[in-house]
Amino acid sequence: MATKAEELEVKQGFSYRVEDGVAVITFDLPDSPVNTLSPETGEAFLRVMARAEREPEVKAVVFTSGKKDSFVAGAKIDFLQTIKTAEEATAISRNGQEGFDKLADFPKPVVAAIHGACLGGGLEWALACDYRIATDSPKTSLGLPEVQLGLIPGAGGTQRLPALIGVQAALDLILTGKSLKPAKAKKLGVVDEVVPAPILRAIAVRRAKELAEGTLKVDRRHGQGFKGVAANGKAKGLAGFIQGLANKELWAEVALEDNPLGRKVLFDQARKQLLKKTRGKFPAPEKALQVVRVGLESGHKAGQEAEAKAFGELVVSDVSKRLVEIFFATTALKKENGTSNPDAKPREVKKVAVLGGGLMGGGIAYVTSVLQGVPVRVKDKDDAGVGRAMKQVQSILDERVKRRSLTRREATAKSALVTAGTDYSGFKSADLVIEAVFEDLKLKHRIIAEVEAVTGDQTIFASNTSSIPITELAKGSRRPAQVIGMHYFSPVHKMPLLEIITHAGTADWVTATCVEVGRKQGKTVIVVNDGPGFYTSRILAPYLNEAAYLLAEGADIAELDRALVEFGFPVGPITLLDEVGIDVAQKVGPIMEAAFGKRMAAPKALEKVVADGRLGRKTQKGFYLYEDGKKQEVDSSIYALLPHGTERRSFDRAEMAERVVLQMVNEAIRCLGEGILRSARDGDVGAIFGLGFPPFLGGPFHYVDSRGPAEVLRKLEHYHDKLGERFAPAPHLVEMVKAGKTFYPR
């Protein structure tokens, strides 16, 4: 009969079985698709380990997972949300450290048998074991992604990983939050062995016995503090800049000598480079760097104490709260079908056709073939367009081969899924046709008619338009219920958002199918209702307009860009204009003005710029100079083409940023009030993942809540009085302030 302690262990998901002198402890958390960590889980695990220590017939332990594709996915994020104070979070971190210290000091060998996601606290758990074996499955990945939630590892990970694999490689993982495939994990020394999944358990038991018998000796030369840095070869990401602090010779010297002066130079320079990337907006990477440094200089115990304190501070920080909210928002979106009908089911898409072979068409073909994994037929008007599409797909595959995320054989197999031509051959069997041609309604209507003439009755027609209402496109269709918008962002293979646009007559199964396609393509998907510019293009228009107004008033181009980068955007609005195409922005302007009136009217500031042939990066001529496609400094000759001429005015950066950002935020609130958006959550996700709105601010709606709706309204009214109709506050905001409401529950 089971004891109460054993019953609790089972309740927390632990089963215990002795095989040939090895205790196999299997973690399979009940009623959960993945294993996650909580204080209760830790306590139950320690009780199981105590049992293994007591039983004399047990010579070693294997720790593994009972989940199909998950080892341990990390801490329970919703549990972290219940923590109210930094002191409470610090205490939880110390408890986790203490538990894993006990595991690390366990008197019998412990082997971690890893299959599936081994992330965050899951990897910290494995790091405390004596030996780690991972499967070679593509489902298996290892990493410390806490920084992506505004946190740092809090159960000893900042100390054990550098000790195991060296400072440079450890920082590359800790500061970026990226994960490793099994082969790379073995190369770095994160795992000791990689085996096929079917034999994982048997090999783990064998290795545990060999460790207990002393016949297996583990080589731990990867770590050893700074010396491990020099031995670990090339690392990318944030650690890449650490490698080149001054030059390779200096790096090798300070690494090999391991002296206090070398350490100071290293970490001081690393912090400077880190701040260039985070601009001080994301405190977690900087704290991680500090904590690693403490451990290296003052020892494991001091490092863990610094880790616990920093973890506690970060858990209750506003930045972490916003990033965690984004995590939950995107997780919730993955469970939705994009309609108000939960019973709407997606239909299988076995083949996709793409119209248009430009950068967008080629990018869509790539994510469809390589990520979604279905055949793609691309059509363009001429051989040159066809060639561009194929070249686009191949160039992305070549880059992945270069980065070793694909083998050459795998890339060749993926590229074989893409074919192209100048006619509609191959379209007959397509379940989904995605159109990515010029923003011209007549052209799109003609294409819809041509596509419907050569495809089946159930084929979905999706447009990648960024501004033309889907309702207008559907008027040119014999099957309007199967017309929908699928708005991708450039470059398609890198930008994470897909904005799906439905008109009043779009069938639910069509929406559900396109949402599922987007997810398989690796996209975060939001569904919005139809209207000119939909959501993302609509809120981007006044943002760029205001930047153009500032230019017309004499603002310095570089200063204006710098103001928005300091605010938290990845690039400034003028750089973005060059990227999008100055002519494209100018064409969208009249569409928006026709739909929304003078408040959306674009300034005339860019007319002479476009007339001069300055269309941006694509013509190597825009606001900035370009060399081999790379942006250089501002082209000062462009000022002569702007209304204010070569004379420039001095603007306060904070005021410039506020003017531009408030335009985007105000328009987002209008979209919610008019029903274009289904929720504030979708609006925040769309702005962050599609337009680069600073994630640490949580999106436009969280930004308003944090400043206070009344304060945002006051600012809009101030600029409305000063600059005119384009700053007229959104009626929905006025109503909310009157009612004393916020967009999210307080």
TrEMBL record:
Domain 3-hydroxyacyl-CoA dehydrogenase NAD binding: 351-530
One Pfam family hit: ECH_1
Catalytic activity entry: a (3S)-3-hydroxyacyl-CoA + NAD(+) = a 3-oxoacyl-CoA + NADH + H(+)
Keywords: Fatty acid metabolism, Lipid degradation, Lipid metabolism, Lyase, Multifunctional enzyme, NAD, Oxidoreductase
Protein's pathway: Lipid metabolism; fatty acid beta-oxidation
GO molecular function, one term: enoyl-CoA hydratase activity
Top-rank taxon: Bacteria
InterPro entries named among the record's database cross-references: 3-OHacyl-CoA_DH_NAD-bd (IPR006176), 3HC_DH_C (IPR006108), 6-PGluconate_DH-like_C_sf (IPR008927), ClpP/crotonase-like_dom_sf (IPR029045), Enoyl-CoA_hyd/isom_CS (IPR018376), Enoyl-CoA_hydra/iso (IPR001753), FA_oxidation_alpha_subunit (IPR050136), NAD(P)-bd_dom_sf (IPR036291)
Record EC number: 4.2.1.17
Residue intervals of the 3-hydroxyacyl-CoA dehydrogenase C-terminal domain: 533-626, 657-741
Biological processes, Gene Ontology terms: fatty acid beta-oxidation
Homology family: In the central section; belongs to the 3-hydroxyacyl-CoA dehydrogenase family. Belongs to the enoyl-CoA hydratase/isomerase family.
Name the record gives this protein: enoyl-CoA hydratase
Species: Myxococcus virescens
Organism ancestry: Bacteria, Pseudomonadati, Myxococcota, Myxococcia, Myxococcales
